[in-house]
Amino acid sequence: MADDLKDSGTVTAISVVGFIFGIIGMLGSFIPCLGSLAFYIGIPAAIISALALGIAYSQKARKTFAIVALTVSCIGVIISGWQYFSIIAAGQKAKEKIEEMSRQYAQPQPQKRKQIMQQQEKSGPKIEQLPSDSSGKNQAEARKLFYDAYLPLITGPQKDIEKIHDDEKWIKKEILLPRGTSNFMQIEMHQYDMYLLEYNKKYRQSKDCGKTMPVEWEPEKLVTGSGYWWITTWEDEPVDFCYQYIFEPFYEDTKLRLYIPKDFQDDFKITLKDAEVIN
Amino acid sequence: MIHIIGRYIPDIRREYSIVNVVFLILLLAMLVMPILLRLWSGGNEQYINSLLFPGCFVEQHTGHICPSCGLTRSILALYEGDFSKSRFYHPYGFLILLVFSGELILRLLPLIYKNIWIPWFDLSQMILIGWLLKRCIFM
Asked: Mutating which of A30, A84, A245 best tests the B interface, going by the most B Cβ atoms within 10 A?
């Protein structure tokens, strides 16, 4: 084929560059995360390949490789472009879903704050009371437990935390998080309470359930990898704490371990959606 | 029959030999990259990806974890011989490493054999494997 056409060094060089970027763009577009970025490699590759083809026509040189490079680049652009726009669309859907979830759990957003303050003025200091049987009475014991047992655990080697797995002073709750679901957990407790959360994948967290600040559903970026442990801080002002979490295991159903001190278990109010306590 | 069809197959051997060498270098770089990132980041696993990649596009837009998140750390764990850690970071890290290693070996094919079909075979298998990975792992 095309044996009568001459070889052109320029066409070959430009075609090779176009082909390499084109195939990287095409193969990259198969990967979900980088695939959308392949869009930006594929387009220059297609332009370079088209340029090579144009030069080949003008010089009456062999066009074979330039055509191959252009084809590969164009396929890459189409696949990655399709992926890029589907991610954007999925982002919009996710945003709507999160907004819906926020509404569902009645998180007071800034625009609702005035209304809530008015309600608080009418009905007392709190809208929703925590279980009252232990409010305040455990504070001294909790503080002691914190300094004696908890602090050495979180400041020592992480494997030391395994010691509490069978410790009778802690109640262990195993929570099953089905894959492909936005598992929701809300923990309400007193200021002096503490809990440990053993979960080793990424998750999203909302501090204070939007009571004092707007809820930000930004994904946590630096909590993937090794086990993550959380403790509430000590404040002088008596406030109740509220945390919301979203866990989204991707590949398989995952277990979350939640440890709460046995003596203070009545302080906690835990709400789950989709997730399920199995133990 | 193959010989007859072969006469009509575009001959891209000369150009493809250059492409093949570039792929060889790129594959080697991809296999060595996790080690370099590890050295660069001083062993901080959470910092590794932020050094090279601009952050996960999927996570930024959807808030969901991307199916390819954790691959670099998974492959790095394999280099350290820790299979369970590798599986923890990404269940298919070993498969990706196998595919990359296989592709590296396949780069020898166009260097050894000069058949007109070789570039087309190589190109087809790359696209097929890429597509299979997408279908089987990333979907």
From this structure: A30
Q: Is residue B63 part of a domain?
A: no
Domain presence at residue B5: no
What gap in Å lies between CA B32 and CA B15, rounded to an integer?
Answer: 26
Quick check: B138 and A31 CB within 8 A? yes
Domain of B95? 12-54+70-136
Is the predicted ipTM greater than 0.95, yes or no?
A: no
What is the domain count for chain B? 1
User: Between chains, do A26 and B131 touch, taking CB under 8 Å as contact?
Assistant: no
The tens digit of pLDDT for each residue in A138-166 reads: 556 666 666 666 666 655 555 566 667 77
Please check whether residue B123 lies inside any domain of the structure: yes
**Strands of the A183-190 sheet, one edge to the other:** A203-207, A240-247, A183-190, A269-273
- Rounded to a whole number, what is the distance in angstroms from the first to the last CA of chain A? 71
pTM of the model: 0.55
3-state secondary structure string, chain A?
A: CCCCCECCHHHHHHHHHHHHHHHHHHHHCCCHHHHCCHHHHHHHHHHHHHHHHHHHHHHCECCHHHHHHHHHHHHHHHHHHHHHHHHHHHHHHHHHHHHHHHHHCCCCCHHHHHHHHHHHHHHCCCCCCCCHHHCCCCHHHHHHHHHHHHHHHHHCCHHHHHHHHHCCCEEEEEEEECCCCCEEEEEEEECCCCCEEEECCCEEEEEHHHCCCCCCCCECCCCCCCCECCCCCCCCCCCEEEEEEEECCCCCCEEEEEEEEHHHHHHCEEEEECCEECC
Assigned domain for B44 exists:
yes
pLDDT tens for B12-51 read 888 888 889 998 998 898 888 878 777 776 666 555 555 5
Instruction: Give me the residue spans of the domains in chain A.
Output: 9-100, 124-277
Task: Please indicate if any CB of chain B lies within 8 Å of the CB of A94.
Answer: yes
Interface contact flag, B45 A225, Cβ < 8 Å: yes
